Amino acid sequence: MRTGRPKKPIILSDQEHEQLTSIVRSRSLPHGLVTRAQIVLMAAEGVISNEIAKKVGLSAQSVCKWRQRYLQQGISGLHDELRPGRPRSVSDEQVATLVRKTLNTKPKKGTHWTIRSMAKETELSRPTVHRVWKAFGLQPHRQRHFKLSTDPFFVEKLRDIVGLYLNPPDKAMVLCVDEKSQVQALDRTQPLLPMGLGYVEGVTHDYVRHGTTTLFAALDIATGKVLTRCKRRHRHQEYLQFLKYIDQNVPEHLDIHLVVDNYATHKHDKVKRWLAAHPRYQVHYTPTYASWLNQVEIWFNIITQKAIRRGTFRSVKDLVSKIDQFVNHYNKETQPFVWTATADSILEKIKRLCQCISETQH
Question: Which terminal CB of the chain, N or C, has fewer other CB atoms within 10 Å?
């Protein structure tokens, strides 16, 4: 019987055997590499090529190929060779032109570029424009809002409030206080269509207004819990009532640091007189146009997204009831927000933003 030219035997050292076994046992390496390591191990044990081919599901010619590659190059020969692939159809100059147009120009018939309009302008395909934009992080369809504070004491107020967050005073409670006004009790004109398999929840585009409420909230930065009260209006009278509610719910032995914005209600003469009569209160005003420094704004966003925006309310009383229900559940499982930004890091970010604005005006 003719068996062909005899194969050169594969003799493995202990180290080579250990490396190949490690490759075979790996769950993260490519399947092809694992199969080739199996071929070499079986060949070293004297298994013939046809038998190896049946066990690994390859042809006998492929088994012989990888045996030979291992004999010539060792373990490095088992890895795939780099393939040239199709040559690039878009030159560096075309990519640079696309990026420059995206950053420095606007279309004649719109406020921003779209993939279709840019593809037509540059005579490139839509997938090419999309890949380049994604590679360079370009998003002409999106905007990010900002507002620089004009407060002359911005730096001092920033350091004061951030200092409270990062190093809260002993035997004191830091409360971030604000009100969310004009919370509407909206009722849809027709019943909701429940979500099902293959389709989303259905709501009518129109609604009926049943009135509004103002949600006052005080966030304890140490625990994340909130004290809330809903009022019909948001005058200084309601704010003062809320301060008295806070006073009743905070232990008497604790000082109270209030972080509030510059809304006129918070600086009313009657409010100032009440605070002066209660010396355990210290008020820290955020800089103008810097409501993002007040942590209670984060909580307002949470309750808006989870309990108000998609809610259906038949009356203001129903709205207030569901707000109270959400707050009760929230306080049972709450955790404090983790504030990590230092005053210096915030100022450095604002400095970069100012430089960017300055450069665009030249």
Answer: N
